[in-house]
Write a structure and sequence with these properties.
The complex is a heterodimer. By secondary structure, chain A is mostly helical. Chain A has ten helices and no strands. Helix content of chain A is 75%, strand content 0%. Chain B is globular, with a radius of gyration of 18 Å.
């Protein structure tokens, strides 16, 4: 409104916005559709968590050393691993080792390359860039990892007869698991690929709208969005690939025998 | 190694095989207990016995799909632990009870073993495909048909042709006739008998189809609760059972379905 810049939200404005949630809760209560408890709890969690992370970032941005920033990234990574672990009921053998190393290499590698080669900023650990970029990469890789791990486990179980038939015909463990690995990889990448294909038409991505709202030129915001989507796709693909390539091995013995339960 | 002249050469020998599988409580379940026998080239060895007696577990040890807890399996007098497993499985083919058909045509299925070997797969008119189809008594016109649309009997034969196409020396069959009606089962039995003779194959066949065992087997083992209770020439064993268990098993009217 005034000049350009961004409109700051006052606490009163926030309270008004929160009124919309209360409205929804009142509606749920009035029409007896339930869920009001969960809505109240979730909205309270959101407010608390976001303020907490906001203040954390606020202090972190003032820090002039890489260690706290890296520590935050590690916590984010560990948390995402824990989320994947909690989400999957039937885990593949050595689940945490496989998924943990894959997330670490996939997200770490892509974030590092992306931040040093694509987005030039200095110092390299500047939390203002590193944390949100790594956060997006880790968040998406987490979804990819959980899809890859879950699907691999299901495929190995469903395709037991197929895999053993292939082994009987002289296939190696890798050859016998080929279809399972292919399907799991596709499942892991599907959401990312769909998001890319629909981007700009079905949805305006969060990061881009955020940048536009805070006054960035749309064309620059678009460039950022394209770059981060590419990084996300790369990280999801690498993480899923590493999970699958390590994961299938744990279903077989060295003598190419399928071992289950 | 020399063999007595009157006998055909021993190709597969199992010695003191024990197989224990851990269950959920941590206690081991003994699936096979001190199993020893020999199978000869050009002969069909039938492994008979009640369900759950360890028959299927037994043949999975011979192509090393599974590992015994103790004991050894010898192929041509060589311990199979010393043979590269993928090489071993090309020499010792196993046709599982439920024939699994890969997506695609019969030809695609027959080409699978070559794909795994990373060799150029033989075409529909190639000597390999034609002779494998002939051995399994399959019509040559069948190669382009969708393998999964075939009847169970036909799938059983495709699985047999697929196992024979790489010319193994040992053929392991798990309940080859369990899904077949009597006429188809008899035809398959006759096919097996001929292949065994013409290709000098060593056939080890797990079955609880006593009719099949009686018609085609040369040698027979009776396996119950993981132990071989009796073994000997098939005619002798089936006609004059010694142990009360085998006598009871043979007397049961029809134990042909699971």
């Amino acid at each position: 409104m005034e000049n350009q810049g961004l409109v700051t939200l006052g606490l009163l404005d926030l309270a008004l916005a929160y009124g919309l949630v209360l409205l929804a809760i009142a509606l749920a209560r009035l029409r007896r559709v339930g869920q009001e408890g969960q809505m109240l709890w979730a909205s309270a969690r959101m407010v608390f968590q976001l303020f907490a992370v906001g203040y954390l970032l606020h202090f972190l941005f003032a820090v002039k050393s890489p260690l706290p920033v890296l520590a935050i990234l590690l916590v984010m990574g560990a948390f995402s691993l824990q989320v994947v672990g909690a989400r999957i009921k039937r885990k593949m053998p050595r689940f945490y080792q496989v998924v943990g190393t894959s997330l670490f290499i996939g997200c770490g590698g892509v974030t590092f390359l992306f931040c040093t080669l694509v987005v030039h900023y200095s110092p390299w650990y500047d939390p203002r860039y590193l944390i949100p970029l790594a956060g997006m990469i880790i968040g998406n890789s987490m979804n990819g990892a959980s899809l890859a791990a879950e699907r691999l486990c299901a495929e190995m179980r469903e395709r037991k007869d197929e895999i053993e038939t292939a082994l009987c015909l002289g296939a190696s463990a890798r050859q016998a698991s080929d279809t399972a690995l292919r399907n799991a990889f596709r499942a892991a990448l599907m959401p990312t690929v769909n998001t890319m294909a629909a981007m700009g038409i079905v949805s305006l991505p969060g990061m881009m709208t955020g940048q536009i709202l805070s006054g960035t030129e749309p064309i620059i915001a678009v460039r950022y969005q394209i770059a981060i989507m590419c990084a996300i796709t790369g990280a999801v693909a690498i993480t899923a690939y590493l999970i699958l390539m390590q994961g299938y091995r744990h279903y077989f013995s060295k003598a190419h025998q399928l071992e289950m339960d | 190694m020399t063999y007595p002249e009157e006998n055909k050469p021993v190709t597969v020998r199992l010695e003191k095989i024990c197989l224990v599988r851990g269950n959920r409580e941590g206690a081991g379940v003994q699936l096979l207990d001190d199993v020893s026998f020999s199978a000869r080239s050009g002969e069909i060895t039938a492994v008979i016995g009640p369900s759950g007696g360890g028959k299927s577990s037994l043949i999975r040890l011979i192509n090393r799909l599974a590992e015994p807890t103790s004991g050894s399996v010898y192929l041509d007098a060589r311990d199979i632990v010393g043979v590269e497993p993928l090489q071993l499985r090309r020499r010792v083919a196993l046709v599982p009870q439920k024939p699994f058909m890969f997506e695609g045509s019969v030809l695609d299925n027959l080409q699978r073993p070559f794909v795994y070997l990373q060799e150029p797969p033989p075409g529909p008119e190639s000597a390999e495909v034609v002779s494998a189809l002939a051995l399994a008594r399959l019509d040559r016109g069948m190669v382009q048909r969708d393998a999964r649309s075939l009847s169970i009997g036909e799938q059983q034969r495709v699985a047999l042709a697929r196992a024979l196409i790489t010319t193994p020396s040992v053929l392991l069959l798990d309940e080859p006739t369990s899904a077949l009606d009597r006429r188809t089962a008899d035809a398959l039995g006759a096919t097996l008998h001929e292949i065994c003779q013409s290709q000098h194959l060593t056939v080890i066949m797990v079955t609880h189809d006593l009719r099949l065992a009686g018609r085609v087997a040369d040698y027979c083992l009776y396996l119950e609760a993981g132990r071989i209770l009796e073994q000997g020439s098939a005619g002798e064993l089936l006609a004059r059972p010694k142990s009360p268990q085998l006598r009871r098993f043979l007397a049961e009217p029809s134990d042909q379905e699971d």
